[in-house]
Amino acid sequence: MTWRRTARWGLLFFLALACRLADGAPFRFVVVGDNQQAISDPLEGVPERGALPAAMAALKPDFALHTGDLMYLGFAPDSYRKFVEYYRPLLATVPFFPTMGNHDAVGSLQYKRFLEEQLFTRNPAVFGSGYAEKFQVAYETDPTEYPSSPKDPAAAECRDRVPSGFSCRTFYSFRYENALFLSFEQGYRDWTNTPLRWVEETLQAARADASIDAIFVYLHHPLYATAMAENPPDPNKPERGQCLKPVRDAYEALFRKYGVTMVFSGHIHQYEHLWVPDDRRFTRAEAPERRYAAGDGIHYLITGGGGGTLCRAGER
To answer: What is the pTM of this model?
Structure first.
């Protein structure tokens, strides 16, 4: 497996990755997040973001992932129709698989409609016959009923099953060749909405399948980052402020247990690559350039350079 950060114009970037099948044949995909486009003007604030979809399509990837915050105002009535218009150079040529960001979560019903159209209408139209066989999408496979809003009184009683107590049911997975991809519903720490049982059952089934060599997770909120605090900034107000630990506490043990290969996130508008060994030893060394056994450690990559104003390491 190889990957590289692909820089453009000194302002925006995305990741291009290449994986190899069991027979050595490669497939490629790109990952981007946080373009945060506006309704009225797709180039508002950061004009360079307009060139990004065509730049990704020019690499001719097999598919693209998005780590969330597709639109700046996800609640606006025209948000995702506008996104389809703005990202047409990519969406018209490459199957596209998004995940929810916090800007998307504020319009969760609209995002859900967009997601379903993307997975089951636009992607098949782009790929052509054989899409369902090539991209084995598992969506709405969890039969459990969860509260759909944090205002639901039952949400507090559901936190042992869903960390935030509720879910809009936009999480899904898909298999492509010898790899499995899990798209979480994870806007920020208060929207940690992917059910733990679904995560474990999906990972467990993947690890029981000898034909799956790699597992990728993509979600919005990072589990590790230099630009976000571990714990709430104000210990007297634990419910407020950006922090990493609540999301990591929810999911990292499952990622280690089932040997997740790599976790992509956004939210932080920069690029970071961290390799975290399972024994938690401190290391600043480069990740090993070898195929490591499942369980040795996990690669965490932040790719939040899709159009939101970039920040420097240590800033949020």
So the answer is: 0.89
